[in-house]
User: Fold this.
Amino acid sequence: MAGHGSLGDGAPTSPLPAGPYLGETPQYPGPGWREPPGASGAPRARGRNRPRRRHRWLGRTVAVLLGLALIGVLALTGLLLITPSVGDAQARTQQLDRLHHAAYPGPPVPDRFAASLVSTEDHRFYSEPGIDPFAIARLIGGRLSGRPDQGGATLYQQLAKMLYTPGRSGFTVEAEQVGLGIKLDLAYSKPQILQMYANVAYFGNSYYGLGAASCGYFGVAPARLSWPQAAMLAGLVQAPTADDPITHFAAARARQAHVLGRLAATGMLSPAEAASAYRQPLELVGGRPGTCAPSAR
Assistant:
């Protein structure tokens, strides 16, 4: 009988412990044995390929981003070419004011209303070129994923909707508003945009224009609006019928709270000032648009 450490024919074996391959005891390599080609170099080859794969991935990503940027530039250029001129924006504003029996030009836009409107509707208004790329990307992402409208229309686009595409909707109309918004930014100053917007915006309860809404709801000229009153009027432009404070007071107050919160978030008011403004009385008077005594800003 063969003893430990030898086979039946007397060939020597190695007492190595079981290897990692299914518990088998590996045979000791005999004379002339060579490692299979590439066996020892495979891990090192994989390590060398990692930077190459990373560089390829980075290159493809950059190429895709550059392609998307080029498509965006071409799309915007096309919109600017096919959309009409906005040189008649002020004339259109005047026509709408006459149609709605509103004064033209309306009273100057007071600071409190301007701050409330910008903070709520378009907080990048003073720095954007008529469009907000971040809001547009959010809107497109929401459309592609089936989420509800995420919002993305700047004050320029909202003004374009009121002046050039009233009553129309759809993707092509929204694209047209983007082009018109850029043109409005190029043609008019920020104060002029705010003035036209305030002149033609609808505030519910048959009030067109900031002057009619300020006098109709609160009995004061726009220049005399308090922070809570300015915040409520700025909140009305999104849903003027649903948030009408005369017929839907609770909804109007909720919207007012949102606007005051945005004023605090953008640094126009401190949180304490916003909370104090919400507690102040609104002094609603209701009624029809009337004539308010002019007041210094």
Notes: The radius of gyration is 35 Å. Confidence is low (pLDDT under 50) at residues 1-14, 19-25. The longest helix spans residues 42-82. Residues 72-279 form a domain with the Penicillin binding protein transpeptidase fold fold (CATH 1.10.3810.10).
